[in-house]
Specification:
Layout lengths: L31 H10 L5 H15 L6 H8 L4 H4 L5 H16 L5 H9 L1 H12 L6 H11 L3 H6 L2
């Protein structure tokens, strides 16, 4: 089921970017593949019915994809579509493109991602590279903060 906007739960309180502030902690992952897939699938999808089950399936099937290198090895098998039960080539291409950005920015772990997002110059470079990916909006960039454990307030103060 899809929703008409990117809001994860239309009844939940959201910040200025539409990210559900009431459950930020429940949305963070210690798995690079999970962050990339969640950020990619969230656009116009119901989180609890569509996104979360697929992210949990990814983590269960590919625990070694917790690092960018591990995720890359798994992506190269061309089995992501089957693992997350997602046939759309556009979203799968976006997963690939975001993974390439993480590789180009030497982001190997969630800790590396957090470090990049907390460092003003690194954050700007990362956001610029991610924003060049089709369908990565400012909202998606803020959502990646949440998924990596960077709070909306913390991200805002670092800008």
């Amino acid at each position: 089921m899809t929703t008409d906007n990117d809001a994860v739960d239309p009844t939940a309180p959201t910040d200025r970017n539409g990210v559900d502030d009431s459950s930020e902690a429940s949305r963070q992952w210690d798995h690079i593949g999970a962050i990339i897939v969640d950020a990619t699938l969230q656009r116009r999808q119901n989180y609890h019915e569509t996104v979360k089950p697929r992210v949990l399936a990814l983590i269960a099937e590919w625990p070694d994809a917790a690092t960018t290198g591990g995720f890359r090895q798994r992506l190269d098998t061309k089995k992501l579509s089957k693992v997350i039960d997602w046939p759309s080539p556009g979203r799968l291409a976006q997963v690939e493109d975001i993974t390439r950005v993480f590789e180009s920015q030497s982001i190997k772990t969630v800790e590396d991602l957090q470090k990049a997002l907390r460092d003003h110059p690194m954050r700007d470079v990362l956001h610029e590279a991610l924003a060049a990916v089709r369908h990565v909006s400012p909202k998606t960039l803020n959502y990646i903060d949440v998924l990596s454990g960077i709070s909306s307030a913390e991200a805002t103060t670092k800008r």
